[in-house]
């Protein structure tokens, strides 16, 4: 068993076998949960949208079963950390790292607009829009950590 | 009902319907668009509207999102595909969009504003 003491920060963690149909349920749950935790309902909407986009990716690109999502609200910093973990192939990890790099260095609106223009020309299923959308709609920072075949994407919302 | 005789697209969680209005046609979106692959569901419908609009010389298409509570990025892509079909058209075939957004639904103002930036001058956005 693993349970740690976290009394200062609002915290929630869910582990589930990724299935597309659970995403909406988790999104709605987080939306409700965060609208209690955070004073501004807009943040609950934005963060649950971001969680939904990350979970879609975790389902689409996971190389094996298993997804963990966690949300931590640090009141002292006025920040909220949204983490999604899944197993990934080295190829997808590389694509993801490149995407995060690109999205993080440019102006959020310009990057998103450019990605939209590129998406119009794509004929494969992907849109490469999800992460740019999160960044544009929330101005959050997006990071990733790779540990073997496990990756964790973290979105840090500045609630100030 | 609509003059093109196109039936609505109805999925488990969303409905997209085409209606006649005096100035042209109106597409109403409601529910949640959050399926894994929305392209085969929505793109053919949008393409049919697009060709009928051109064939019938319609100049005004209203996109009413006021009842759409969620739209994932793949859903956004289906709209991008439609809108970017209009920009390269010759002037006599071009038509205008008006996007209706709901200020109560947080993502709409930001996401839908970006759609209007894809085709400057062709899309007006009304937030209500
Ligand atoms: N959780 C993840 N695991 C592995 N690869 C991912 C993950 N999230 C994103 N990626 C990679 O990053 C790319 C960009 O993601 P995103 O912007 O959401 O676009 P899309 O979902 O349309 O492909 C994906 O195409 C995929 O290659
Ligand atoms: Mg995605």
Briefly characterize the structure.
Chain A is α+β, with helices and mostly antiparallel strands and 160 residues long.
The top level CATH class name of chain A: Alpha Beta
Poorly predicted regions of chain A are none
- What does the largest sheet of chain B look like? 6 strands, mixed
Structural class of chain A: alpha+beta
CATH fourth-tier homologous superfamily of chain B: STAS domain
Strand order of the largest sheet of chain B: 1-2-3-4-5-6
Quaternary state, please? heterodimer
Q: Give the N-to-C terminal Cα separation of chain A.
A: 36 Å
Describe the 3D structure.
The complex is a heterodimer of chains A (160) and B (128). Chain A is an alpha+beta fold and 160 residues long. Chain A has a single domain, classed as Heat Shock Protein 90, CATH 3.30.565. Chain A is built from five helices and five strands. In chain A, β4 and β5 form a beta hairpin. In chain A, α1 packs antiparallel against α2. The longest helix of chain A has 21 residues. The relative contact order of chain A is 0.17. Chain B has 128 residues and is an alpha/beta fold. Chain B has a single domain, classed as STAS domain (Transcription Regulator spoIIAA), CATH 3.30.750. Chain B is 34% helix and 34% strand. A six-stranded mixed β-sheet of chain B has the order 1-2-3-4-5-6. In chain B, α1 packs parallel to α2. The two termini of chain B are 25 Å apart. The relative contact order of chain B is 0.16. The model of chain B has no long low-confidence stretch (mean pLDDT 97). Classes of the chains: A alpha+beta (160), B alpha/beta (128). At the A-B interface, α1, α2, α4 and α5 of A face α2 and α3 of B. Adenosine-5'-diphosphate binds next to α2, α3, α5 and β5 of chain A. The site of magnesium ion has 4 residues of chain A, from α2.
């Amino acid at each position: 068993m693993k349970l740690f003491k976290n009394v200062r920060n609002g915290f929630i963690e869910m582990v589930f076998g990724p299935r597309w149909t659970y995403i909406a349920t988790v999104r709605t749950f987080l939306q409700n949960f965060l609208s209690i935790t955070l004073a501004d309902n807009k943040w609950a909407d934005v963060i649950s949208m971001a969680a939904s986009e990350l979970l879609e990716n975790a389902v689409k690109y996971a190389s094996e079963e298993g997804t963990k999502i966690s949300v931590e609200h640090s009141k002292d910093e006025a920040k909220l950390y949204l983490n999604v973990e899944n197993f990934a192939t080295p190829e997808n990890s590389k694509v993801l790292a490149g995407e995060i790099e690109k999205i993080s260095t440019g102006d959020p609106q310009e990057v998103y607009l450019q990605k939209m223009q590129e998406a119009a020309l794509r004929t494969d299923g992907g849109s490469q829009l999800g992460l740019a959308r999160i960044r544009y709609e929330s101005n959050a920072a997006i990071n990733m950590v790779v540990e073997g075949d496990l990756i964790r994407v973290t979105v840090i919302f500045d609630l100030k | 009902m609509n003059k093109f005789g196109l039936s609505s697209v109805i999925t488990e969680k969303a409905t997209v319907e085409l209606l006649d209005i005096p100035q042209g046609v109106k597409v109403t979106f409601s529910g949640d668009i959050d399926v894994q692959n929305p392209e085969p569901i929505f793109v053919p419908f949008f393409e049919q509207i697009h060709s009928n609009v051109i064939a019938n010389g319609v100049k005004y298409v209203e996109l009413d999102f006021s009842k759409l509570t969620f739209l994932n990025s793949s859903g956004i892509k289906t709209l991008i595909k439609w809108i970017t079909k209009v920009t390269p058209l010759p002037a006599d075939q071009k038509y205008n969009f008006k996007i209706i957004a709901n200020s109560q639904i947080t993502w709409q103002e930001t996401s839908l504003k970006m759609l209007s930036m894809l085709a400057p001058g062709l899309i007006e956005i009304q937030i209500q």
